[in-house]
Amino acid sequence: MSACEFESLEECLRSHLPAAELSEVSRILYGRETTKLELPACAVDAASERDFELKGYGFEAALEQLRPARRIRVGLIQHRIVLPTDAPILDQINAMHSRVGEMVEVAAMCGVNIICFQETWTMPFAFCTREKEPWTEFAESAEEGNTTRFCQELAKKYNMVVISPILEREELHNTIWNTAVVISNSGTVLGKSRKHHIPRIGDFNESTYYMEGDTGHTVFQTQFGKIAVNICYGRHHPLNWFMYSMNGAEIIFNPSATVGALSEPMWPIEATLSSESFKSEFTSGDGKKAHHDFGHFYGSSYVAAPDGSRCPGLSRTRDGLLVVEMDLNLNRQISDKWSFKMTGRYAEYAEELTKAVRHDFKPNIVKE
Amino acid sequence: MSACEFESLEECLRSHLPAAELSEVSRILYGRETTKLELPACAVDAASERDFELKGYGFEAALEQLRPARRIRVGLIQHRIVLPTDAPILDQINAMHSRVGEMVEVAAMCGVNIICFQETWTMPFAFCTREKEPWTEFAESAEEGNTTRFCQELAKKYNMVVISPILEREELHNTIWNTAVVISNSGTVLGKSRKHHIPRIGDFNESTYYMEGDTGHTVFQTQFGKIAVNICYGRHHPLNWFMYSMNGAEIIFNPSATVGALSEPMWPIEATLSSESFKSEFTSGDGKKAHHDFGHFYGSSYVAAPDGSRCPGLSRTRDGLLVVEMDLNLNRQISDKWSFKMTGRYAEYAEELTKAVRHDFKPNIVKE
Q: Of A34, B63, B227, B338, which sits most exposed with the smallest number of CB within 10 A?
């Protein structure tokens, strides 16, 4: 069996383990069980007709006496490219708009409040080719590009916050960035979050195309909660998740494009550790080899709760929409339970880290 | 099936999954495959006679041209208590010395260079009882206590670095600490590392007994490598792993005592994320309910490599010794491959964190 044929970890476990063992394995791998979400028949039918996977899960929180529940629904979309990578650029972009548009329509049927697309979703993830052309031509203005206008229409039409990660061209300086545009459900561009850490590994030296983001750890206050976007490789840097959380993020999205041989063993777990926020990880699903054969993009989008529990992932090989209902009250409940922020000794870490980055830093090493 | 009967995740997967699927599942859950270590027959026989599990794995590193391989063997011991918790204290301690002593002898047969015992290994993990007596009577001097002397003898006899996590009494101030004593293979006490983060969760408010450690992120330079000890709950704080690594640790040990309902879903993964050091997590194995029925201590000791791959865990229910061979050159190789420290933007995080802990901190939140 090749990695490209393997449907998903969850599917494999479900079809081979006896019920009692499956329950223990799921508890250890995924924590507290998520509930299955009942999705409307029209959505299920549309997903089937349009040939993409549709899954729904819910994270429960306790009812509180003084705060009403803050139940919202988040949608994550993973998809392969639509046209071949040598088709005219505008055709490629339009085909992707059209594909994602029909998936967002289904998300709307499912009552999704915030939707997030995959990393640089309007184009093939070509950043390991080292070719500047034609890839840089896919770059658009974050504020006024066609793709942003397209997302603003979706946002208004469906009353949905849209996170649209694109290749951004900043016209003024002719700089290119890997940027998530955050669009309010009113259709207003709330702002943008640029990829904070840039990989230099294997085929992926993306600094050929764009450099480390300069937008810091911005959090966006939306009608449905405070959200942040930690793009791709930033998920390997625990401090990155942490600083979004310190700035008040209730949900941190992690749109990623990455391949199996490189990062798949880290994928199922990186969003599950302790930052006391909900975290959504997802990558593009692509059963076929990419155009320059740089490996299998493994889909597997999932959502993790602040207690480290997580829902099953989408398929490793198919387009898909994951709908997750969460009660944002869970963040504070887990915070009260585990007290990570209170036991974190952050003032001391601030001092230690400040010393550790100086050239005259003396590591604390004891010798005999 | 109850959580106490479930032997281990790895055993369950191995016995139910077809070979091709098992290989994919293992790749996703554990990363690059570890090799099985050939252990001497005398050690295998002794472990069997003495009724504990013995497993050995190896992490491979590439051969380099300019540095010789730095292959060493690490041993982790997990065990239940020996005598009932109401037996005379000295008898309990001596029985534990004797049990661990016979396990260390087997570790020596296996060529172990550095051995680590479990958290407060000489006593029942009673810190959820809130009773001061008789538990505080188990506390000993880190420098001159019986247990340290016992470990110094082991260290000299077997030419082994011994990490001995105990309940420490500092005579001068009559303060109690949760402390790992690090003893050189020469028998010298190199120093100590006190538990840096103290839980206040569920039954475990350990600050009833001891407070946050004051030894910072000390790293110990031994003949076999630079090591650090991150005790128990500190594993939930990514900054804690990180600062040991920033101080040069090549292996970070995480002796832990924790129960299934609380933390088991986090356990298999916490040591696997990106600090570019080897990390060893382990807890006490105890198939029986603890004396006040506060849950199942789930063993499951394992070692993770700096690339996030990890070896299978020991049993959830049996005493055990895990022997892991590692080439410490892998740390720098993975560092060169992934460049986490170079792409980490730590100077900026030092500034951000310094601001974030101030009372006048204004989080970076964008509103419509």
A: B63
Q: Using the beta-carbon criterion (under 8 Å), do B1 and A13 form an inter-chain contact? A: no
| Segment-wise mean pLDDT, segments of 10 residues, chain B, 368 residues | 73 91 86 92 98 96 97 95 94 97 98 96 89 94 98 98 97 96 98 96 89 97 97 91 95 85 71 65 47 64 88 90 96 92 95 96 95
Number of domains in chain B: 1
Spatial CB neighbours of B88, under 8 Å, sequence gap ≥ 6? none
Structure tokens at A212: 């480390």
Per-residue pLDDT, averaged over A111-118, amounts to 97
What does the alpha-carbon distance between residue A111 and residue B94 come to, in Å, rounded to a whole number?
63
d(CA B92, CA A37): 52
In a domain, B363, yes or no: no
- Cβ contacts (< 8 Å) between A229 and chain B: which residues? none
Q: What is the largest CA-CA distance in chain B?
A: 71
Q: Note down the domain range covering B229.
A: 9-356
Residue A76 forms beta bridges with which residues?
A: A116, A322
The terminus-to-terminus CA distance of chain B in angstroms comes to 52
Chain A residues lying within 8 Å of B243, measured CB to CB:
349, 352-353, 356
Q: Chain A closest CA to B21's CA: distance in Å? A: 7
Under 8 Å between Cβ of B78 and B282:
yes
Question: Burial code of B218-228, b = ≥16 C-beta within 10 A, e = fewer?
Answer: bbbbbebbbbb
List the single range of A125-129, A234-238, A265-269, B169-173 with lowest mean pLDDT.
A265-269
B276 lies in a domain?
yes
Mean pLDDT taken over chain A: 90
- For residue A228, give the CATH number of its domain: 3.60.110.10
Task: Please state, in angstroms and as integers, the Cα–Cα distance from residue A255 to each residue in A117, A120, A209, A251, following that order.
Answer: 7, 9, 18, 13
Q: Is B221 on the interface with A (CB under 8 A)?
A: yes
Residue B58: inside a domain = yes
In a domain, A21, yes or no: no
> Quick check: A232 and A195 in contact, CB under 8 A?
yes
Q: Which residues of A touch B347 (CB under 8 A)?
A: 357
Concerning whether A232 is annotated as a catalytic residue, the answer is yes
Chain A interface, best mutation among B193, B207, B357, by max A CB count within 10 A = B357
Please, are residues B212 and A347 in contact by the beta-carbon 8 Å criterion? Answer: no
Contact A239 B238 (CB under 8 A): yes
Distance from CA of B244 to the nearest CA of A (A): 9
Residues 6+ apart with CB under 8 A from B225: B70, B72, B114, B250, B251, B328
- Closest chain A residue to B308, measured at CA: A266
Q: Is the ipTM of this complex over 0.95?
A: no
Cβ-defined contact of A309 to B265 (cutoff 8 Å)? yes
> Considering A10, A119, A206, A276, which one is annotated as catalytic?
A119
Active site residue A195: yes
